[in-house]
Every structure is written in structure tokens, then in C-alpha cells.
Amino acid sequence: MNDEIAKLYDQAIVLEGNGDYVAGELDIVKFAALVAAHEREACAKVCDGKVDAEYATGKVDHNEMSWSMACAIAIRARGEKS
């Protein structure tokens, strides 16, 4: 398990006093939600990077930027409750 996922696991799963991890159904659901949110944000940051790269070229293509920004917004919106 990589360090980032291990940190999410530690946030979701309760460590008992005896050193054992105890994971109930709600803990597993919380862990899955944390992992999904982490992955969504990583994907959205790829889109953000496209926008930053577009600025860095000095030749801004507003269509390309609009699509990249819309993509990042759409990815992040998947985590919002309706």
C-alpha cells in the first residue's frame, strides 16, 4: 500500500486499544469514499496542469484552456452530493 493510501486508511479505520484495526461496514465505505476523492482530485490536477502549461507557452489557446478547465470542474463535481 503506498503512503497516500495508507494515510487514507488510517483516517477511515479505527485502531483499537490493543493495536488491532477494526473495520466495520461504515469504515470500509468511508475508506472507499476517501480513496475515490483522492483519485478524483489527482485527475482534476492533471487538467489544471494543462491550463498552467497553456499559460507557460505564452500562446494561450482559449479553447484548449476552456476544455481543460471544464474537465477539472466536471471531475471535482462528481464528488458533490446531489
Properties at a glance:
single chain; 82 residues; mainly alpha; two-stranded antiparallel sheet; 3 helices; 2 strands; 72% helix
Query: How large is the share of residues in beta strands?
Result: under 5%
Structural class: mainly alpha
Q: Could you give the order of the helices and strands? A: HEEHH
> What is the count of β-strands?
2
Estimate the global geometry from the Cα principal axes.
Answer: elongated
Number of domains: 1
Helices, by number, come to: 3
Strand order of the largest sheet: 1-2
**Percent range for helical residues?**
over 70%
Distance between the termini: 32 Å
What is the averaged pLDDT score? Answer: 85
Question: How does this structure look, described?
Answer:
- The chain has helices at 3-12, 25-57, 62-77, and strands at residues 14-15, 21-22.
- Helix 1 (3-12) packs across helix 2 (25-57) and helix 2 (25-57) packs antiparallel against helix 3 (62-77).
- It has a two-stranded antiparallel sheet.
- 72% of the residues lie in helices and 5% in strands.
- The model has no long low-confidence stretch (mean pLDDT 85).
- It starts with a helix and ends in a 5-residue tail after the last helix.
- It has one domain.
- Strand 1 (14-15) and strand 2 (21-22) form a beta hairpin.
- With 82 residues, the protein is mainly α.
